[in-house]
Structures are given as structure tokens and as C-alpha cells.
């Protein structure tokens, strides 16, 4: 965790950088075991908030929070998801670190729009993976699809996480700081063995350019975009698209939602249930009530008699 503290203290922002308040917030997040990415995002958002007013956050109140949210939505025109991160950071600061009684009530969380994921067909997944020309990049994207992994989970796989005896992959500290096991496909195991014989990784299954560190999410994303251009598929494709395809294809093949929830590592079944809305087995295969109506024989309209003046 030493790298995290060093990185978080490196923001060159006035009014919040290198202050006791910043240190206390960092400690509060550490005590609650928030993920490193969450800690980094929260401190970055609070730093931007302090810089906007050029004032320490403990001297600001509900009116300034409201003004800042208006600035983010109307002036900067940020998405509700981005504003939600800033809102979560300010809620944590004022409720947990500064213990202000008004924190949650006075800081509204923006309502996010619900969008269904664009799902690749099985043929499109195969076409896409065949277009990845780099062995390690192709193997990590295969793994993301075959096991339904988040990109951060795929990049942080270790060689020791492969259990070919039980045919499972261990996901160590996935989202929400939770471990889980996912299936190890026989076909994926074969691909991983081919990759291992070529790359000979020791610690990280997919090592990055920096010695001792895994491949970065950005590197996987760039490889994904390169393959998308090469394969000619018009749909947007990101590493997370493969996770969407994994869940949808399982559902279409008859796997129950609860099992898919466990494989994906979703905390809420409602999150997994959204795939019911894009699975053709549940949407397109459902009979419309229109098709069940009794057939009614309708006589063709008779031509109108000519009108004479």
C-alpha cells in the first residue's frame, strides 16, 4: 500500500494537498478498507472541489456543495456517473471525516440513466478474438470472455490462480474486496498453456512493461480497439463488452440468473437481472399476445359506387 500513499500525496493542488484533513480522510478510507482506486478517485475529487473554491473543504458548507454540483453538471456538462463519483467523495468527506450532520441530506446523488449494454453475438466474439494479433493480448481477452472477468480482474491474475485440477480460476480480491472462483474452460486452459509455453510468466499471468507489475488496463483497452478496427465490427467493443457477452450468452444457453450472479461477482441479483432484457432467449423467444389472438376473417373493402353530379 506504500505506493498508494505516495501517489495520492503527489497531487499538486492547493488548499487540500498535504494537509491534516487530507491525511485524516485517507486514514478514514483505509480503516473502511475502500479499494485503492476508490481512495484515489475520492481524493482527486475533493482536491478539485477545494481548488475550485481555493479554500479548504472544512470551511465550506451545503451552499458551496450545491454550487459545485451545478458547476459540474451545467458548466462542465459531466455525465451523471462522473458527478456521482464527486458526490460520493463529498459525502464521505463531510459525513465520515468531518462528521457534519447535514452531509447526506444536503448532497443529492444524481439519478443515473439506465442503458442496456450492446451485446456481441457468439460469432462476433469469435471474429473479434481472431483479429487480436498479439498472443498475450489475445489470451487475456479470451480469458475475460471465457470467465466473465472485469478487466482489472483479468490483468491481476497470477499464474498460481489457475487451478487445472479443479478447473477453476481464482479471482483474488475482485470488486468489493471479495474473492471468488469462476469456471476454467477446457478450451481456455489449452489456450493458456500455449501462451505460458511462449511467454513463461512467473508471478503475474499477464506481466506488463514495468518489471514486477501486471499489464495495465490501458494496454488491454488499446489492444481491444486495435482488434475492433481490424475485425470490422461496427458495434462498440471494450474489454467490458466481453463480460457482457459472457453473461448474456450464459443466460441464452439456459444458465439460471443466480449462478450467473455468483460467476460475475455481483452483490445484487438486480444487477445481474438486467441481462434478461438483452438475452434473445427471453426477449425474442417470448410469444407476443398478438400471435395468440383468434384469427378474424376480414372481408376486403368493397369499391365505392361512382358518384354522378
TrEMBL record:
Q: Which GO terms describe its biological process?
A: DNA integration; DNA recombination
- What name does the UniProt record give this protein? Integrase/recombinase
Enumerate the spans annotated as Tyr recombinase domain: 115-288
Family matches, as PROSITE patterns:
CB, TYR_RECOMBINASE
Q: Name one GO molecular function term.
A: DNA binding
Q: Which residues cross the membrane?
A: none
| Family, similarity comment | Belongs to the 'phage' integrase family.
Q: Which UniProt keywords apply?
A: DNA integration, DNA recombination, DNA-binding, Plasmid
Occurrences of domain Core-binding (CB) (ranges) = 16-98
Which CDD domains does the entry mention? INT_IntI_C
